[in-house]
Amino acid sequence: MRSTIPIGPLMTDIEGKELLEQEKNFLKQACVGGVILFARHYESPEQIKELIGSLRAAADKPLLVAVDHEGGRVQRFREGFSRLPPVRSFLDKTDCFDEALRLSELAGWLMAIELRSVGVDFSFAPVLDVDCGISEIIGDRSFSENPEQAGRLAAAYRNGMNRAGMAAVGKHFPGHGSVAPDSHIAIPEDDRAFELIEQHDLPPFKKLIDEGLEGIMPAHIIYRQIDDCPAGFSRKWIKQILRQQLGFEGVIFSDDLSMEGASCVGDYPQRARTALNAGCDMVLVCNDSDATHEVLNGNCLAQNGDESSKRLETMVGRFPVDREKLLTSKEWQQSVVQIEALL
């Protein structure tokens, strides 16, 4: 049954492994709709499950809990979770593309089912960027340098996530693979014409959108031939291209507003306001409690409308997973052996 309380448009984080008293207060605010977890929040599966339970209890309303948990370099929970290889390994360590597809689906399921077993709603995955060999921040986080292969492998990965009851978020729209600077520490620009981006970078996004992709995260990159502001703050990219041209109906999450790639837009309230006005359903403010409070106090977070709230509800984990039963199941045990063999 759908909740009568809308999910708020702000996703942020907390300080450490336990919920502080002052953090309980801001979680109750109507505009706070999600919490993203990082490695500093994690000690063990039991501890993270307890922390997630305390987050939900403190909020006392619908609250999305998310994490960046792709595998390879980007895996926030380590000890007690299966080690996940970078997604490029599905191609690099197999001789048959059908086998790469099978392993991609299996890895998506394994990643998602373990996260669901501790109460995480979704991971910000899969990466849909097409690698060009120039972006160190993307690199082996990309499924392939071939747009068609990247799309098919990512679609298989999403299928595995869905089978575990988890929605997927494709990133970083319209593509980060052709840009060398890291948007965490720079303001990257891409001077290519739209036609080149459409041919090389958009195919994976188009494929997964056509298959019902639940969420997308735009890049903090300025595509100068299309717009003068980063894609995540651009009405042209979000409303015209992503919504109208590509027909995307799912959730649009901003990337972290504390990244350097967002700094050209203004202060934190201005970044949040611009992203939401451009068409994002939820904005992320991470690793900066002062910035979170600036956004909360900046009169820039209007309560989500009905359409946006409905979209955000699709990101809720679809069914509970009993962790003890999972770890004794043959499916999980066999999956771990096959996926860790790629490391």
Based on the model shown, name its key terms.
single chain; 343 residues; alpha/beta; TIM Barrel; eight-stranded parallel sheet; two-stranded antiparallel ribbon; 13 helices; 12% strand
- Secondary-structure class: alpha/beta
For the record, what CATH class applies? Answer: Alpha Beta
Question: What is the CATH superfamily label?
Answer: Glycoside hydrolase, family 3, N-terminal domain
CATH architecture: Alpha-Beta Barrel
Unreliable stretches (pLDDT < 50, length at least 5) are none
Roughly what percent helix?
25-40%
Shape: globular
Q: How many distinct helices?
A: 13
Looking at how many chains there are and whether they match, the oligomeric state comes to single chain
Distance between the termini: 42 Å
- Mean pLDDT over the full residue set: 95
* Lateral strand order in the biggest sheet: 6-3-2-1-12-11-9-7
Radius of gyration: 19 Å
As a percent range, the share of strand residues is 5-15%
What can be said about the biggest beta sheet?
A: 8 strands, parallel
- Output the CATH topology: TIM Barrel
Give the count of structural domains: 1
Q: What do these coordinates show?
A:
By secondary structure, the chain is of the alpha/beta class. It has one domain: Alpha-Beta Barrel (TIM Barrel). The protein has 13 helices and twelve strands. It has an eight-stranded parallel β-sheet. The protein has a two-stranded antiparallel ribbon with strand order 4-5. Helix 4 packs parallel to helix 5.
In short, what is this structure?
The chain has 13 helices and twelve strands. It has 343 residues and is α/β, with parallel strands linked by helices. The strands form three sheets. It has an eight-stranded parallel sheet with strand order 6-3-2-1-12-11-9-7. A two-stranded antiparallel ribbon has the order 4-5. A two-stranded parallel sheet has the order 8-10.
